[in-house]
Amino acid sequence: MHNLTFPDIVGMTGTILLILAYFLLQNGRVSSRSATYLYMNFAAASFLLFSLCFTFNLASFVIEIFWIGISIYGIWKNKKI
To answer: DSSP letters of 9-67?
Structure first.
């Protein structure tokens, strides 16, 4: 049996946040421009990126970098409006 490490727990938290954000978007509880949705995506990608620093996977690492960048862009754009 695999013992969960701190990076595993942080990564799983990110996974849960990402799934929850997408679920909330799909059922109309949040909009794609809402601060809640944007910050959930930013936090989820950051948590997943943290976990990838311990168990590296290049493809996942690259997608999380872009996910963080796009989330930051969305947060910045919302603050400008």
So the answer is: HHHHHHHHHHHHHHHHHHTTSS-TTSHHHHHHHHHHHHHHHHHHTTS--HHHHHHHHHH
| Cα-based distances in Å from 39 to 57, 67, 74 | 24, 11, 9
Three-state DSSP class for residue 70:
helix
| Residues 30-75 pLDDT 10s | 999 999 999 999 999 999 999 999 999 999 999 999 999 999 999 9
Region label for 20, one of left (φ > 0), alpha (ψ between -120 and 50) or beta (otherwise): alpha
Residue with tokens 């959930």, as numbered in its chain = 40
Please, which residues have CB within 8 angstroms of residue 40's CB and are 6 or more apart in sequence? 17, 18, 20, 21, 24
In angstroms, rounded to a whole number, what is the distance separating the alpha carbons of residues 20 and 35? 14
